Amino acid sequence: MKLDHTIIYCSDKIASAQFYAEILGLKEGGSHYSFEVLHVDDTLKLLFSNRKHISSNHYAFRASAKEYDSVLSHLVVRSLPYGDSPTDRHNELEYRRAEEKGFYFDDPDGHILEMITERR
């Protein structure tokens, strides 16, 4: 069994999908019914849906070293804050735990995104 998709509620589904595509390097999948679609990998899709009231959620992505560095570089180039804790996403630090490292940052609607390196 695999997770097929998850819905991310946002204020502007097109702008949010573009943010995720640009920052995370995800492949755009166009529109599907009322959703904007991005492909995380061969099986998992993110479906973006417009909502007036949005509750913040946490989405964690495990990435190769190259993908991880690319995401961090995109944030730095755009002067977007990141941090080593879900409660401090602005200190420009990365956390290190055993064989992995990571950081947290916000999407345009305040969802907390986490990047984690693949375990060695």
Mean pLDDT: 96
Query: Helicity level, as a percent range?
Result: 10-25%
Anisotropy-based shape: globular
CATH homology superfamily of the largest domain: 2,3-Dihydroxybiphenyl 1,2-Dioxygenase, domain 1
Q: Give the helix tally.
A: 2
So what's the CATH class of the largest domain? Alpha Beta
Poorly predicted ranges: none
Largest pleated sheet? 4 strands, mixed
N/C terminus separation: 25 Å
Can you tell me the number of structural domains?
Answer: 2
Key traits:
single chain; Signal recognition particle alu RNA binding heterodimer, srp9/1; 2,3-Dihydroxybiphenyl 1,2-Dioxygenase, domain 1; four-stranded mixed beta sheet; 2 helices; globular
Give the helix/strand layout:
Elements: E1 5-10, H1 13-24, E2 27-32, E3 35-39, E4 45-50, E5 58-63, H2 65-77, E6 95-97, E7 100-106, E8 112-117
Parallel strand pairs: 1-4, 5-8
Antiparallel strand pairs: 2-3, 3-4, 6-7, 7-8
Q: How would you characterize this protein structure?
A:
There is one protein chain. The chain folds into two domains: 1-53, Signal recognition particle alu RNA binding heterodimer, srp9/1, CATH 3.30.720; 56-120, 2,3-Dihydroxybiphenyl 1,2-Dioxygenase, domain 1 (Roll). It is globular, with a radius of gyration of 14 Å. The protein has helices at 13-24, 65-77, and strands at 5-10, 27-32, 35-39, 45-50, 58-63, 95-97, 100-106, 112-117. The mean pLDDT is 96. A hairpin with a 5-residue loop joins strand 3 (35-39) and strand 4. A four-stranded mixed sheet has the order 1-4-3-2, with helices on one face. A four-stranded mixed sheet has the order 5-8-7-6. The protein contains two helices and eight strands, in the order βαββββαβββ. The two termini are 25 Å apart. The protein is α/β, with parallel strands linked by helices.
